[in-house]
Design brief:
Elements lengths: L11 H19 L3 H6 L3 H4 L5 H4 L8 H22 L1 H22 L16 H17 L5 H12 L9 H20 L5 H26 L4
Length: 222
């Protein structure tokens, strides 16, 4: 329906992401934080080490609840979207939502060292919120209610106001990317689906890079 290749069997991409996150979390525990420090994202290091915008999404806090919640949410949404969009589009959605989470934190955190730019953030939450966002237009396109996922998003967006140490900015960034990409994939006319499958991720990537460079330039870091 959305132009992706229908495949049977296991959701390979979703399982691969889960495996990478679990292996990375174990490495965080056994290296005493060295693995975390190497790959976590903070605005103060993002300009010189841009890969951290993505790698932070494969890290989690040492609390098992953090990774359990994110992997559970990924398992609930990933296979459905992987089957709906196809593997290639799903990879693009997940990766760009993860990067979008880091960009969201960069844009919305206070641009000073003490105000958040030197605070490292980790977790797949930005990418997971991207999947939450992408499901909404898919459900609307297929004539199903999106009320439950909207309630879930609202609850999770409210949690940071009651629980400290959660980067709500990353949630918002991932959600925005997921909504945009989900809507593009879901509502593209059939004759344009293949082209949208390439151009939409490219366009979102350009916007994220442009927003990142603008933010760094606006505070005199470029």
């Amino acid at each position: 329906m959305f132009g992706g290749t229908v495949r049977g069997g296991r959701p390979v991409v979703t399982l691969t992401i889960v495996a990478l996150c679990v292996v990375s979390w174990v490495l965080q525990l056994v290296t005493g934080g060295e693995w975390t420090q190497r790959w976590a994202f903070a605005p103060s290091v993002g300009l010189d080490q841009p890969w951290r915008f993505l790698t932070a999404a494969f890290l989690h806090s040492t609390s098992i609840l953090h990774i359990l919640f994110n992997m559970y949410a990924l398992w609930l949404t990933g296979p459905f979207l992987e089957q709906a969009f196809g593997r290639g589009r799903f990879v693009a959605l997940y990766v760009l939502s993860a990067i979008g989470g880091s960009v969201g934190y960069l844009l919305l955190a206070t641009p000073t060292i003490d105000g958040g730019w030197n605070t490292a953030v980790v977790g797949a939450s930005g990418a997971v919120f991207g999947l939450f966002g992408a499901i909404i237009p898919v459900l609307r396109r297929t004539g199903r209610s999106a009320a439950q996922i909207l309630v879930l998003i609202a609850i999770n967006m409210a949690i940071p106001f009651f629980v400290g140490g959660i980067a709500w900015q990353a949630h918002l960034g991932g959600l925005a990317v997921g909504l945009a990409m989900g809507a593009g994939f879901a509502f593209a006319p059939r004759e344009w689906q293949a082209l949208v499958g390439w151009l939409l991720p490219l366009g979102v990537a350009v916007v994220l890079v442009a927003a990142t460079l603008w933010k760094y330039a606006s505070v005199g870091w470029l």
